[in-house]
Amino acid sequence: MRPLDGGELSGEGTASILVLAGHRGPAFLVRDNFRAIMRYNPSTSYSLAVALLADRMTGKPGVRGGWPREEQALSKDERIDLQQRLASLGLEPGAADGIVGANTRNAVRRFQTSVGEIPDGFATKALLDRLRQRS
Question: Is pLDDT at 52 greater than 70 in this prediction?
Answer without folding.
Answer: yes
